[in-house]
Backbone:
């Protein structure tokens, strides 16, 4: 049975394996590093002793002088990934719901992410709405390089 729990440092190896299954090896950041870091909220999906999914949320105060959207758009989903063999069974959706609920204080506060077009439908099913580049620019002063999505607790499905 799949369970969701807070990530622990002992999960790092299995979380690295999830990242490697989801992102190119050359990706510039190792998301398992966030586990235990203040201002982040990290959860794993487990199937017995196996870690099959991971989500990392950033919820420290926004840094409006930062050069990247992830520094300015808070709370922000840094990573969500599920091992290929465990996909399409609702694990990703459960991780996103847990991640969003853990960092949002009130019903209408937005939480943000950046994503590729091929995964946009996954977020739209969960109630996320695509932000226009002008909306992001007005909110945090940067033109997004790619797709930006947001959701509030009120809209999360
Ligand atoms: C995206 C990802 C986390 C989804 O995990 P998952 O466990 O397969 O997702 P779920 O089973 O919870 O899917 C929930 C719904 O979204 C749909 N869905 C899943 N992936 C989708 C996609 N890429 N595009 C459109 N819809 C998708 C499912 O069919 C399901 O729909 P339903 O509720 O109508 O049945 C997983 O495919 C993954 O790890 N991908 C690689 C890493 C990645 O792209 N992460 C996002 C970085 S921005």
Residues:
């Amino acid at each position: 049975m799949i369970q969701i729990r807070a990530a622990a440092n002992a999960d790092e190896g299995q979380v690295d394996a999830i990242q490697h299954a989801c992102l190119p090896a050359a990706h510039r950041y190792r998301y398992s590093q966030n586990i235990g870091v203040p201002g982040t909220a990290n959860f794993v999906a487990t199937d017995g002793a196996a870690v099959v999914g991971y989500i990392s949320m950033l919820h420290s105060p926004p840094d409006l002088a930062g050069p990247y959207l992830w520094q300015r758009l808070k709370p922000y989903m840094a990573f969500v990934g599920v091992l290929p063999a465990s996909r399409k069974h609702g694990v990703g959706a459960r991780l996103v719901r847990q991640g969003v609920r853990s960092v949002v204080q009130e019903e209408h506060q937005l939480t943000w992410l950046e994503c590729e077009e091929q995964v946009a439908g996954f977020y739209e099913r969960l109630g996320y709405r695509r932000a226009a580049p002008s909306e992001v620019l007005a909110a945090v002063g940067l033109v997004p390089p790619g797709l930006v999505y947001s959701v509030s607790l009120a809209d999360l499905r």
